[in-house]
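User
Here is a favour to ask of a fellow structure person. I am asking you to supply a protein in sequence and structure-token form. Please set it down just below, with no commentary around it:

Assistant
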Amino acid sequence: MRRLGFTSIRLKLVLIFMGILIGSCQLAFTFAINFYFDKVIKDMETQLMTESGLIKQLAEKTNLEAEEIIRLSRTSFYQTDAYYRVQDIPVTLDAKQLKLLQTGQSIYVSTQRENREIRATLFRLREQYVLLTPHVGAYFDPVAQMMVNTIINCAIIGAVLILIAVRQIMKPLKKLTEATREVAQGKFTVQVPYKGRDEVALLAQYFNRMVQELKHIEYLRKDFVSSVSHEFKTPISSIHGFAQLIQAESLPRDKFLEYTGVIIEETERLTKLSSNILKLSRVENQTMITQRSSFALDEQIRKTILLLEKEWQQKELDFELELPKTIYLGDEELIQQIWINLISNAIKFSGYGSCISIRLTSLEQSVRISIEDEGSGIPEPVRERIFEAFFQAEGSHAREGNGLGLAIVKRVTELCRGSITVQSVEGEGTTFTVVLPWLESELNMEVMNTHKGHESLPG
């Protein structure tokens, strides 16, 4: 098959085409023969009746013997048989037919020919009885032969044409196959150019898009590995260095406390980094919310603020809260990660004595929470990348985090079928807005306090 230039799909298409062609022609031939058989037989009967009349006229107008007339009238379309006695005729005749036959009329009689029951013509010619029986094969054999020849010619011509067509169709598929092989080898720069609007063009389009996504994922994977290695290497190097200083020198009490403090701080950083990596891995591999419970969303935010009390008290921050009573159905543990990271970021980037505003608003189809600080703001180039894992803007606060918090927030909101947006002005502050949809038919929401007021926690 390879010598003929066939690949498996080509051979399959050609064979399928030929099978369909031959099968459909065979069925069409069978239906046509069965449909037209009765009509052809009827025409043959009429022709034989006419032929019998012509033979009888010939006998009346000439002095030829009956045998000579019969011999002259023989053709390849019907068989002529002569009998001297009625008893010798191989058909069954009733009294009415015998009477018509004796009066010189031609009659139809039934006889078996070629496994079919057909009607022949019987008439009297002088002292003999003549039976004209049609040759059915003489009528249908040429048609059958023509159909067979047509099928063979169509199959040959169709096979050649379908092979040419398949070769044209296979060209872009070959390109896709080669491109797929390169992608399997880790080459994510390959693209398959293909113009058109057919299914192959759509396949090529999605293939190119897939390669772009794989290239992006590969870049993120390498960047992730590099970032994780860097984030772990820095505190480990610090711990190693200060541990050596403590071991190598007889340090005064204040230096010992300073060095051990650094070691404790770096270990806490490693612990937080490991915890965040595990959280990110969990939400990245999770495809849907499986654990749902009703909880007070406003109380969850208040508890998160109290959880971070040490951080905001050190900066003497104030909180301006608008948190009406709101019952939400969702994964309480996952959603709390949103507030821990966003409020922690707001505290980190806020100046001493400034204010953080948190507002919760219940809408018809969702709940909206905005967290606004009065910090340094986020520069425009940085704003587009803040939700990437391990991304940290250059600045004094980069040392305090690991760039995973906002990536976790982004993924959790996506799992909740919600969204998060950011608005920021350099030097004035930043506002993160989270929108979480209500879960229809499962929501049990109670709003007991609808007045708008401001609650304040002491700084």
User: Anything to note?
Assistant: Residues 120 and 388 are 94 Å apart (CA to CA). The radius of gyration is 48 Å. Confidence is low (pLDDT under 50) at residues 1-5, 394-399, 441-459.
